[in-house]
Amino acid sequence: MFKVAVINFKDLLKFLILIFLLISLITFYKEYFKKERMYNLKEKIIEECSRFDKKSISTEIPAFTIFDSEGKDTKLNHNDKTSSILDMELGALSIFQNNENVLKENDVSNENSQENNNNESKKNNGESQNDENNIVYEDTETNDSTEVSGEKVSTEVVTKNPLVDAYNKKYKGVKIKNETKFDLTDDILNFDNFSIDKSNIIIFHTHTCESYTESEKFSYTPTGNFRTTDLKYSVARVGDELAKNLKKYDINVVHDKTYHDYPSYTGSYSRSLKTVTNLLKDTKSDIIIDLHRDAIGSYSSYAPTVKIGDDYCAQIMFVIGTNGGGLEHPNWKSNLEFAVKMQKKGNELYPNFFKPIILRNSRYNQHLSKAACIIEVGSTGNTLDQCLNSMKYLAEVINQL
Length: 401
Prior knowledge:
Layout: H1 9-37, H2 41-49, H3 54-60, H4 78-89, E1 123-124, E2 127-128, E3 136-138, E4 143-148, E5 151-157, E6 165-167, E7 169-171, E8 174-178, H5 186-189, E9 200-204, H6 235-247, E10 252-255, H7 268-282, E11 287-292, E12 305-308, E13 311-314, E14 316-320, H8 332-349, E15 357-359, E16 371-377, H9 384-399
Helix pairs in contact: 2-4, 6-9
């Protein structure tokens, strides 16, 4: 006796349709989640930040209050504040893109430099060849000497575990990391006709409480992560040292140590804007220096250091703003010329003392003068001793402008 299976054509058709629908649904979800994984980094971070307490975000993240062209504060909601912070600070992350080996355990050498898809390093006979469309990674260990006041002073980068310095423009030996869409032509960078009055200099600190790694000589009680309200141990103490050294050259200095980032980081730049605006009413000044300490994400041990003679000094970096963010800024080109001119002189006196200039879209209150700038002295891994040493050399560079 045989068993016969009877297949209903209609049931078979329904089954095939169901299989087709399931395959289509799986394909759709696969593509959907693929797109989800392509979320913008900024959106991801904003999403994560929104989980935290808003008060904590306002007090612990060094935020920037956004103000319009008239200087009025713009009211932002919580996510907009987070977005604003990221817009200003994520530019620093570009040196890490397409580069898995960010922290170098050994010195970067010409022979071992590798090409990257977006950020390429071009080396030829030990000399960096700059490509306008690519980021060039520069050696972090050099040994040069320069003649100052008839005496040769050797300079040597001695940073432990250095991060690579990236730049995409080189002008008269000055390296610039251009994070804007502006084409840095000779007309913009040429400082031959640039002149300033250096008889008065204003020094202030938008982030007054920034501090450094403790040392035997400078031990303090932190009031935050690499932060202190004690002006004897914060970046304000570095400003004191710069002012003292500039006065040796008969340069009048106004050093303002107002807290702009305490008790809250939020609104630091709008508060420092008011401070400097008031200072300019009494003291006419071309050179306005917002003195900072650099911070590279979670790399708290990062300490960019150069040895000049017998002094271990924290390296220095200019950050120059533009009107790329939409705020009125008629002085950004002259600010950049000032930084390039000063860094060229610094390179002549103390090679490798300055890290590449960073040019960004944010304004940073630099619209107030023709030679306004942020100068970042060292990073969290540097000691206050090293930063104080740097100031006599920075003062000498300013004096020789």
